[in-house]
Design a protein that fits this description.
Blueprint: E1 3-11, E2 17-18, E3 34-42, E4 70-71, H1 76-82, E5 86-87, E6 91-96, H2 102-113, E7 117-121, H3 126-135, E8 143-146, H4 151-161, E9 165-169, H5 186-203, E10 206-211, H6 224-228, E11 231-237, E12 243-251, E13 259-265, E14 268-271, H7 275-279, E15 289-296, E16 299-311, E17 319-322, H8 326-340, E18 347-353, H9 365-377, E19 385-387, E20 390-391, E21 397-398, H10 403-412, E22 417-420, E23 434-437, H11 441-449
Parallel strand pairs: 6-10, 6-11, 7-8, 7-9, 9-10, 17-18, 19-22, 22-23
Antiparallel strand pairs: 1-2, 1-3, 4-5, 11-12, 12-13, 13-14, 15-16, 16-18, 20-21
Family: Belongs to the RecA family. RadA subfamily.
Domain RecA family profile: 67-213
Binding site for ATP: 96-103
Length: 450
């Protein structure tokens, strides 16, 4: 079978291939994602179906249910996000902006784990990593270090030492002799990850791989790397703020709707056991400020939602958000104008979720309506009021999932009133909490006015 070396252009988002460079991928529609990579194209050997061996099959009904063995990470917030603990033989991709704390978090995890750990770094020397351990007050007695940058060499180290956890920092600095291209290219990234996955399955080691991100904030490299791994985690945060949020966009061993909250301090990332209290510690009680309850997996969080309404000097008034969907804001402002008579055609509207939090939950709808109405009327909301509920295009206020968890968190933190759609018969109202039921946006705005 003959082969030839040819230049192939591929899309880093969907892996579509092209014989020449194009500005826009015709498969996924993305611009600027086409890059070159050298690849060996082989002539396909045509085989008849009768010459191919028959694959074995297994009756799934005859198999016993077996839970994947897991062990605790030592961090309750990490265990919450990944589904109760680190899975043996699992491969986890951890992404995030430069400087957000990916290496710090995984180094602290390695030190706190109390198990045999292999730390692989192509970006730092042993002295640099040791110095970071000292700054974090972490013992390195159970941590072995290597700068092996070739995946074949690293697999041999893993097979020899048999660690229970391997941390690779980072995927883009590793290379494989089985693929063409330089380290970090799509071919190399896929080959390196394939080698690590094979090592994880054969040794039952859990492997955490740090991945770079693009300027858009998504994992760098071909999209196929997210399909290959078992778990994809994103560490989010702003370098100007101390809070960090850990989320899973893919998880074969648990849910993907949980969030872990950390705070960056002098000695590294510290778990936040009571996020609601932290989010509300510096709340603003003027007009436009509203406290709402969001549900992140099994956890209810109280956060402050802020609105600012200002006279616009533009032909098209500005709508801007931080942590909230700007398109949904446009829809809610249209509902507020048409269904409740609060016209904002000549006003700029800004929405902010305090603390750097972000959410796309529909339960925030009524809180956005209340905060914008409060800012427009220049009338502060009661300091002990919580607002949540979904808003429809007809101006109706709809119930949301997890109302009882939201109410329990509201009561626990000392709030006395809740503006929301009427409770179902199955939901219990905590003692000391006053329910203010509303059926429409107009009813909610009228209540705020008077």
């Amino acid at each position: 079978m003959s082969a030839r070396l040819s230049t192939v252009y591929s899309c880093s988002n969907c892996d579509a291939q092209y014989p020449r460079w194009v500005g826009r991928c015709s498969q996924c529609g993305k611009f600027g994602t086409i890059s070159t990579e050298g690849t060996v194209i082989q002539k396909a050997t045509v085989k008849s179906a009768s010459s191919v061996p028959v694959a074995d099959t297994v009756n799934l009904g005859s198999l016993k249910s077996v839970n994947v063995p897991k062990f605790s990470s030592g961090y309750g917030e990490i265990d919450r996000v990944i589904g109760g603990g680190i899975a043996q033989s699992g491969v986890t991709l951890v992404t995030g902006e430069p400087g957000v704390g990916k290496s710090t978090l995984l180094l602290a995890l390695a030190g706190r784990l109390g198990k045999k750990v292999l730390y692989v770094s192509g970006e730092e020397s042993a002295e640099q990593v040791s110095g970071r351990l000292q700054r974090l007050n972490i013992s390195g007695d159970q941590i072995s270090f290597t700068t092996a940058s070739e995946v074949g060499s690293l697999v041999q180290v893993i097979n020899h030492q048999l660690p229970q956890l391997v941390v690779v920092d980072s995927l883009q600095t590793m290379a494989s002799g089985q693929a063409e291209g330089s380290a970090g290219s799509p071919n190399q990234v896929r080959a390196v990850l394939a080698g690590l996955i094979e090592a994880a399955k054969s040794t039952k080691a859990a492997i955490f791989v740090i991945g770079h991100v693009t300027k858009e904030g998504v994992a760098a490299g071909p999209k196929s790397i997210e399909h290959l791994v078992d778990v994809v985690l994103q560490l989010e945060g702003n370098s100007n703020q101390s809070l960090r949020f850990l989320r899973a966009s893919k998880n074969r061993f648990g849910p993907t709707d949980e969030v872990g909250v950390f705070q960056m301090e002098e000695h590294g990332l510290v778990e936040v056991s009571n996020p609601s209290a932290l989010f509300l510690a510096e709340r603003h009680q003027g007009a436009g400020s509203c406290i709402t309850a969001v549900l992140e997996g099994t956890r209810s969080l109280l956060i402050e939602l802020q609105a600012l309404v200002a006279h616009s000097r533009l032909a098209y008034p500005k709508r801007a958000t931080a942590g909230f969907d700007v398109n949904r804001l446009g829809m809610l402002l249209a509902v507020l104008g048409e269904r409740a008579g609060v016209k904002l055609n000549y006003s700029d509207v800004y929405i902010n979720l305090a603390g750097g939090f972000r959410s796309r939950e529909p339960a925030l709808d009524l809180a956005v309506i209340a905060s914008v109405a409060s800012a427009t009327l220049k009338k502060p909301l009661p300091h002990d009021l919580i607002v949540f509920g979904e808003v429809g295009l007809g101006g109706e206020v709809r119930p949301v999932v997890g109302a009882e968890k939201r109410l329990n968190e509201t009561s626990r933190l000392g709030f006395k009133q809740v503006l929301m759609p009427n409770l179902s018969t199955k939901t219990k109202l905590p003692t000391g909490l006053e329910l203010i039921p509303v059926r429409t946006v107009a009813e909610a705005v009228d209540w705020l006015r008077y």
